[in-house]
Structures are given as structure tokens and as C-alpha cells.
Design a protein that fits this description.
This protein has 168 residues and is α+β, with helices and mostly antiparallel strands. The protein has a domain of 113 residues: Aminopeptidase (3-Layer(aba) Sandwich). It contains 5 helices and 7 strands; from the N terminus they run βαααβββαβαββ. β2 and β3 form a beta hairpin. α1 crosses α3. The longest helix has 16 residues. The chain is globular, with a radius of gyration of 15 Å. It holds the Pfam family Acetyltransf_3. It comes from Hymenobacter sublimis. InterPro entries: Acyl_CoA_acyltransferase (IPR016181), GNAT_dom (IPR000182). This is GNAT family N-acetyltransferase.
Length: 168
């Protein structure tokens, strides 16, 4: 059973913990380039400001023991992809391997299907991110595709995997 956590909207009071946990190269290496490293207070303020504007919220903080230790977001698409949403997440390294992110993904999928007019939620982990692939599989996602060498991160090409779950 994972430690107790809560998914909730981001607040400016989360700035210090956001920067403390997000400023980690072990996290940034598996994120797209919009997630900077080093992760500064300025980055954190801009992120919290952006995440706080959404109604209903798309990006939530993962709170453990009163502290924001990670984030999870669902991003509805537009145009012909409008029945789809992309899922993204990260968790502070001290909390890895405790089942938190798997359960957070399950809760976010439920939230996504209840809140948005979508039928499919997908995630695109790097081929090298085995832990994230396991998280998605444990949360009921199915591998739909693997594209070789489509992502370019830190000077190297990486495989893009597409995992998805569909509205029951």
C-alpha cells in the first residue's frame, strides 16, 4: 500500500518544495525540454502561475505529509485529437518505488474521464524509462506503439513509446 498522498491544485506556497524536488537531473532526463534543469525558483513560479490558471485544473500537485513532492497532469488535445488527452507526471526521487505514482496515475485517469469529454488517455515515456513503463502497465495502460529514435534529448536519440488507456 503506497504512503498516503493527495492530488490537489498547485499553490504558490508549494514553490520551495517544487524547486527542491524538481531540481534533479535524474527526473529531468526523462522529461521533455519544457521541464528545465537546473530547476529554479523562477521556473517554479512560472509553472505554478500557469497551472493555477486552469479551470478545471489539468495539472495537480502530488502531496505527501503536507508537502508537494511531484506533479501529474492531463492535457486534453484539440482538433481531430479532441477525444484524447496526454498524461504526464514526475515524482521526487525520495518517493520512488513506493507505489505512489502508480496510484496517482490511476486517480488521474479516473479524474480525466470524469472531468473531460475524452475517450482515451495516452502517455509517451522514453524507451529508456523502464520504471515509467512499469507504472503505466500497472495502472492499466497498454503499449500501442514504439517509434525508434524519435525523441532527441541530451544529445542522443531515444525511442518514443505510446501507452494508452480507454474509457471503460
Amino acid at each position: 500500500m503506497p504512503p498516503t498522498f493527495t492530488l490537489r491544485p498547485w499553490a504558490l506556497a508549494d514553490l520551495a518544495s517544487l524547486v527542491r524536488y524538481a531540481n534533479n537531473s535524474a527526473i529531468a532526463r526523462y522529461m521533455n525540454d519544457q521541464f528545465p534543469h537546473p530547476y529554479t525558483e523562477e521556473n517554479g513560479r512560472a509553472f505554478i502561475d500557469m497551472a493555477s490558471q486552469e479551470n478545471p485544473p489539468h495539472i495537480l500537485a502530488i502531496e505527501v505529509a503536507g508537502e508537494a513532492v511531484g506533479g501529474i497532469g492531463i492535457h486534453p488535445r484539440t482538433n481531430i485529437e479532441r477525444k484524447n488527452a496526454e498524461l504526464g507526471y514526475w515524482l521526487g526521487e525520495p518517493f520512488w518505488g513506493q507505489g505512489i505514482i502508480t496510484e496517482a496515475v490511476r486517480q488521474m485517469v479516473d479524474y480525466g474521464f470524469r472531468t473531460f469529454d475524452i475517450t482515451r488517455i495516452f502517455a509517451r515515456p522514453f524507451g529508456t524509462n523502464l520504471a515509467s513503463q512499469r507504472v503505466l502497465e500497472k495502472a492499466g495502460f497498454v503499449l500501442e506503439a514504439r517509434f525508434e529514435n524519435t525523441f532527441f534529448k541530451n544529445g542522443e536519440f531515444l525511442d518514443e513509446l505510446i501507452y494508452a488507456v480507454r474509457r471503460p
